[in-house]
Write a structure and sequence with these properties.
NAD(P)-dependent_oxidoreduct, 13 helices, 332 residues, 15% strand, seven-stranded parallel sheet, NAD(P)-bd_dom_sf, NAD-dependent epimerase/dehydratase domain-containing protein, three-stranded mixed sheet, Rossmann fold, single chain, Epimerase_deHydtase, alpha/beta, aldehyde dehydrogenase (NAD+) activity
Length: 332
Amino acid sequence: MEASGKVGLFGAAGAAGQSIAAALSAAGRDYRAVGRSRQPLEAAFGHDPRAEIVTWNPADPASIRAAAAGLQTVIYLVGVPYDQFAAHPPLMEKTLAGVVAAGVERLILIGTVYPYGRARSNPISENHPREPHTFKGRMRLAQENLVLAAHGHHGLSTLVLRLPDFYGPGVERSLLNGVFEGAATAKRAQMVGPVDVPHEFIYLPDVGPVVETLTRTPAAFGRWWHLAGAGTLTQREVARQAYALAGREPKLMVAGKTMLRVLGLFNPLMRELVEMNYLMTEPVVLDDSALTKLIGPIAKTSYEEGIRRSFEAARDAASAGGATQRSAAKTV
């Protein structure tokens, strides 16, 4: 491992950015949190003296260059709305031009399983064909091809780290978030089915330390890697464990593909979920033995522990919300 230069998190305000920032901070490293608006960045990183907060406009080359100035490594976490995936490749093209102009040495894209399409067998290693049959998969493939093609040019090294679906305390954009909220509030959990197929989830706080290690591992660059979860389990089992922590029987409302189609008539996000529903019926499970061989053993939180922490965070948020409502009622 080499000495570490400054890291910038582009699209930092999401849950993955916060996990990586926590790992950088724990390693005693300064970092730059970059996002479109200041308020969520201040909320997420304002307490950390190691954080420098910078806003940018990812459509403006000068803004990208300014956001990247003085950084050794950029970690790219920029999201787009689920119904605007066509924006992924042009945003990445602009970002690559900006980081090259700023003299950045390394870029890490946090990627997904979408570019693989359907798994030919599970678990899959990095040599599985990338043959997406969905529009979102093709857009993500085009995005990561831009990143990989940039490796070795203009002093830039690149890599893609591929993650499965994630979950964790307060991670709202997780398939499992409805389970923890339902268990915490004694309500019905909203879920996307089917819920009895074994699925792989990664506990998001486990991602940060791996990414921090990769930023100072030159041998990792020039290819893509897998980071797997702690095995597989069904969504029904997650619900059983979460509701048991609350002393309750699970109550589930499961939307399968047909229900998603109907809901999609009224809700664009639900319409977009139809295309990716194959990942619920035919999950892609990742083999990360190559990454383990490169960086050594990877600490992974067990599902039992991850579910407990996620439930406790949802319970705390529910009780805090209830307390806020009660105090507001008193002041009316």
